[in-house]
Write a structure and sequence with these properties.
- The protein is about 35% helix and about 20% strand.
- The chain is built from 10 helices and 13 strands.
Length: about 300
């Protein structure tokens, strides 16, 4: 049976314990506790967050677990990037809200120009440390996307290097009972079916799952329902996001993504994981958008 969760991205990503920022660069005085109160009040069963949301709790994982359990929520998954983005350590990643998310210019500023063995080994060491910390926090899945690269810099050997890196990362997480789900995304080496297939020529299909991301796939010209039919039981996670005809991410049911068709395809392949409602920059309050997305998904599952 599919369960409904919420990615807390629409309330922003953690800067520290008291502040968050949204993709449009706005900074909000809002704690993780307040954010999860909203998730709970909107009647979601679980949540997903970004890696920056949990790093403040690395030295006190018990506090994080109490924050989650006291709100009756399940800590479902966390986002992490394969290979570092082209950003300074103190830089906040933002997008241009006036451009469609499908515009390559949204991702060029964070894109790396090449992949080398030194960077791969450094990232593997970082991921091993993160796997240990995530196990202490109670996480059960890590959703990994990337590496971010503009198309003209992508070389065939990068798929092999990234695929082998994914395998080593997934083996490390497996030690702690944590699953890895790869997330195809615009601006990365695997934003469409061709990229996914090239990556999984080297990534172990039995070890590394796939995350269905409905909006990014749609923007890349991929039918999400056909993606489900193509990869079937390899899909281990699902991000439910909508996109308008002009490329802006919007509340579920207000864009062009055919969610009824997607749910039917998921049921057909026997998917019984999480449906994670996601919205990057809400037009109205994050609480209102989250509530609307939950109502939409509830109705969809009843059909």
């Amino acid at each position: 049976m599919m369960r409904i969760g919420c990615h807390i991205l629409q309330w922003g990503m953690g800067i520290d314990r008291k502040k968050r920022y949204t993709w449009d660069g706005k900074i909000w005085n809002r704690s993780l506790e307040q954010t999860l109160d909203s998730v709970s009040n909107c009647n979601y069963e679980g949540f997903e967050c970004n890696d920056s949301d949990v790093t403040p709790y690395f030295n006190n994982p018990g506090e994080f677990r109490t924050i989650v359990s006291s709100r009756g929520l399940k800590f479902v998954s966390i986002w992490n990037t394969l290979l570092p983005k082209k950003m300074a350590s103190d830089e906040l990643q933002t997008v241009n809200p006036d451009l469609p998310m499908s515009d390559p210019g949204q991702y060029a500023p964070i894109s790396i120009s090449n992949v080398d063995e030194r960077t791969v080994q450094e990232d593997l060491a970082e991921k091993k440390h993160f796997a240990l910390k995530l196990s202490e926090l109670g996480g059960g899945m890590v959703t990994i996307g990337g590496p971010y690269m503009v198309s003209e810099n992508i070389r065939e050997e990068y798929y092999e290097m990234a695929g082998h890196l994914l395998n080593e990362i997934a083996e490390e997480y497996k030690k702690y009972g944590i699953k890895v789900s790869y997330h195809p995304e615009l601006g990365t080496i695997a934003q469409n079916v061709r990229g996914v297939d090239l990556l999984f020529d080297y990534a172990d299909k039995g070890l590394v799952g796939l995350c269905l991301e409905t909006a990014h796939l749609t923007c890349a010209g991929v039918d999400p329902a056909e993606f489900v039919e193509r990869y079937g039981p390899r899909i281990t996670h699902a991000h439910m996001k909508d996109v308008s005809s002009d490329g802006k991410f919007v509340e579920l049911g207000t864009g062009i993504v055919q969610f009824g068709k997607i749910i039917r395809a998921l049921k057909k392949v026997g998917y019984n994981g999480w449906l994670m409602a996601e919205l990057d920059i809400p037009v109205r309050s994050a609480d209102e958008s989250a509530r609307a997305n939950k109502v939409f998904l509830d109705a969809l599952l009843k059909e």
